[in-house]
Structures are given as C-alpha cells and as structure tokens.
Amino acid sequence: MKILLVEDEKKVASFIQRGLEEERYQVDLAFDGRTGATMAVSESYDAIILDIQLPGMDGLDVLRYIRGHGVTAPVLMLTVRDSVEDKVTALDSGGDDYLTKPFAFAELLARLRALMRRGQQRNGENRLEAFGVTVDLHTHQVTRNGRTLDLTGKEYALLELFLRHPGKVLTRTMIAEQIWGYNFDSFTNVIDVYVNYLRKKLDQTQGPKLIHTVRGVGYVLRREEDSGQ
Ligand code: CA
Question: 2-123: what fold?
C-alpha cells in the first residue's frame, strides 16, 4: 500500500511517516502543495493524506487540482482549524474525510484504513458516460458510439471534466483551474484551442455536435435537442 503525505510541518510529517512505515505502508512525502499535486497526478497512490494549510498552493487547491486530473485515490484532509466551514469546504472539494490536529496516530490509522476500504469498493465503477461518449478512468480509453478516439493528455482531461458535468456550463475559469492548475495565465486562448481540438475529434465520429460554446462564459457538453433551443 502506497501513501502520499503532503505536510509542510516537518515534525508532523515525520511523526506520520514513521508511524505508517511501522505499519508497513510505503510513504512518499511532499513538503508543499505544488510538489504534492505533481506527485499525486504522476504516481498512483492508495491514499493521500493532505494538510490544508500549506504554503503557496494550499490543500484545497491541491485537492481540486488532483480531482480535476482524474485522481480518484481517497484523500484524508488534515486541519488545525476546527470550523464547520472548513470541513464542509474540504468535503465539497473532493476530500473523503478530515482529521483535526492534534490527533493520535491510532485515529489517523483507523480513518485511513476505513477510507482505503471504501476506495477499493468504489473502484468497481471507474467509467464515465454521457451522450454515447465513455471514458475508462483506469485505461483512459475513450469511445463514442463504440468507436475509439485517440486523445492527447489535455484533450482527455478536458473530456473527463465535461463528462463529470454533463449539461452544465463550465466557465473558462473553472476549466483553467481544473485542467491547467494554479499557474494559469487566463489571458491566453489556450482553453479555446484545446476545446476545439477535442470538438474536432468528437465530430469525426457519427452523431450530433456535443460541445457547445456559451458566449462570454464557457462551454457545455450536451446534445443540441437537450438545450431547448
Ligand atoms: Ca501546515
């Protein structure tokens, strides 16, 4: 079992790391959010322990970023702030559970085990589908009406984001945050360029246009007859 720990306080980090290694987990450490986010999307982890208060990119940003990049590993958030609002935000952003510092190691271990059990049960249905388009979240295979599409990494990430929100308008800001992350320069037209790439590939197959431009706002994945126009 491999776990990613993102925690900037070295003392806390080594306390958790030592404990987990004694339990025979393999632990990778990141001391800041940016590094943690990169590791989470490039490696496969059974669970992620994520501190909320991190320098630079904070834990909630990391969480949104990795969920936007298709990371489905269960995430246990660590917080010092015991406010209801924080907990709600943590869970809304795609966190699975949270733990308030200071905590006993046994408690962390119990929560982590529960999350990983739930994660394994959830892994049965790792497929997204809407309007005849499917993506396999494990193999990244994409099909439309049974025909396989060959997408680049960014095109795939975009399509996955659309499939997670069928019929809902995605703003450029949301797309930028989810796909390009924290460093994104919103004055470039890179989003429009990639949406067009994806659109062309979807249009190569049979069926109506699926990605529609919502002027001045963003894009929506839907069938035209569903739009009421
Ligand atoms: Ca911290």
Answer: Rossmann fold (3.40.50)
